[in-house]
Design a protein that fits this description.
It is a single chain. This protein has 162 residues and is mostly helical. It has one domain. The protein has six helices and no strands. The chain has helices at 4-29, 32-62, 68-73, 81-109, 118-145, 148-161. Helix 1 packs antiparallel against helix 2 (32-62), helix 1 (4-29) packs antiparallel against helix 5 and helix 4 (81-109) packs parallel to helix 6. The longest helix is centred in the N-terminal third of the chain and has 31 residues, at 32-62. The chain is elongated, with a radius of gyration of 18 Å. The chain starts with a helix and ends with a helix. The model has no long low-confidence stretch (mean pLDDT 87).
């Protein structure tokens, strides 16, 4: 991948695939955890769209390809939005993880739930391979891109795989 946007678009496609698998397998198996994973992926997809948009604005600003009105409104460019997007993305990830922890502790304290491994094992295997593959491809691309947006996205893929 040559650009930050290409890496993030690959990630978005992967996230949408994982979200569809999570929601589908979650509904089929009746698993709240798998369904939750699909919803988490949808939240991650929204943040990926924001990152792709921001990366495009930063690239256009650096190449002086913005409209005159936009350039006058954002005289310093869009680079200063990158840390804000990174912080919001991290906050969302931590919030969703905290919610999952709360749900897990609540389930344990109430005696746990019966586990059906059939569809869950298939889902887990497919998603682990997919998430590690996308994280690896993005990590390799980020060696030349050196993008903070791609770096946090790689961390998200690793977190999803684990």
């Amino acid at each position: 991948m040559r650009t930050e946007q290409q890496a993030l678009k690959l990630s978005l496609a992967g996230i949408l695939l994982v979200a569809a698998l999570g929601v589908g397998f979650g509904l089929i198996s009746g698993s709240f955890a798998i369904l939750f994973d699909g919803v988490f992926s949808l939240v991650d997809a929204v943040m990926s769209v924001v990152s792709i948009t921001l990366a495009g604005l930063i690239a256009k600003s650096a190449a002086n390809e913005l409209s005159k009105r936009t350039h006058e409104r954002f005289t310093m460019g869009f680079w200063h939005f990158e840390p804000i997007v990174l912080a919001v993305n991290a906050l969302l990830m931590m919030s969703v993880a905290a919610y999952a922890l709360f749900q897990a502790v609540t389930a344990l304290l109430s005696g746990g739930r019966d586990v059906e491994f059939g569809a869950a094992v298939i889902y887990a295997g497919v998603v682990v391979v997919l998430t590690f593959a996308i994280g690896f491809v993005e990590h390799r691309a980020n060696r030349t891109l050196n993008s903070a947006l791609v770096a946090i996205d790689v961390k998200g893929w690793i977190m999803a795989a684990v």
